[in-house]
Amino acid sequence: GAALVAAFRQLLESCPFVAPVTHFTQAGTWKLAGSLTGAAAAQQLDAGKLHGFTPMLGLQQTVPRGIWVPTSLCLPLAAVAHAHANGNRYRPLSLADMQAVNANVLLAAPPKLLAIAHPSPPTARQGPPP
Q1: Do the beta carbons of residue 78 and residue 4 sit within 8 Å?
Q2: CB 3.0–4.6 Å: which of 1, 24, 60, 61 could bond 94 by disulfide?
Q3: 73 and 108 in contact (C-beta within 8 Å)?
Q4: Which has the closest alpha carbon to 80: 22, 24, 20, 121?
Q5: How high is the mean pLDDT of the chain?
Q6: How far apart are CA 59 and CA 37, in angstroms?
Q7: Which among 61, 48, 43 has a CA at the least distance from the CA of 99?
Q8: How far is CA 64 from the centre of its chain?
Q9: Cα–Cα–Cα angle for 88, 91, 95, rounded to 5 degrees
Q10: How far apart are CA 101 and CA 90, in angstroms?
Q11: 54, 8 in Cβ contact below 8 A?
Q12: The pTM is what?
């Protein structure tokens, strides 16, 4: 209802930029729309181009081409908006965050998987386990 749309709008407008996943290919890959301003993303929500199941990534600035964005960083708009509205503020990623993930793929892994694969959380300097 209206409260849900308001929560979506509040989240989108709190992000300087938003990169929604716009489509999936037959090969199973996906594409981001690029970096929309939070206000432009809210307009797409109003136009019916975004919905609660749309995977999205909040960004602090635009991300240049060539930066790999792992699927695990894109979360459904409804899930992020729910957490954001209930006191778990969503922090959009910075370019430095994205570069760190590109340098060390384990930074994009879910915490439970990391605990199994690597006993102590890796840092960007440690790199992946041998």
Answers
A1: yes
A2: 60
A3: yes
A4: 20
A5: 78
A6: 9
A7: 61
A8: 15
A9: 165
A10: 18
A11: no
A12: 0.73
What's the CA gap between 29 and 83, in Å, rounded?
27
Q: Which two tokens stand for residue 68?
A: 């790999």
Which of 80, 73, 93 lies closest to 7, judged by CA?
A: 80
Higher pLDDT among residues 75 and 63, named by residue: 75
Could you tell me how many residues make up the chain?
130
DSSP labels, the chain: -HHHHHHHHHHHHHSSEEEEEEEE-TTS-EEE---EEHHHHHHHHHTTS--TT-EEEEESS---TT----GGG-EEHHHHHHHHHTT----PBPHHHHHHHHH-GGGGS-HHHHHHH-SS---TTT-S--
What are the structure tokens assigned to 107, written together? 């930074």
**Tokens representing residue 8 in the block:** 């979506």
Tell which residue, 96, 28, 41, 88, has the closest CA to residue 67: 96
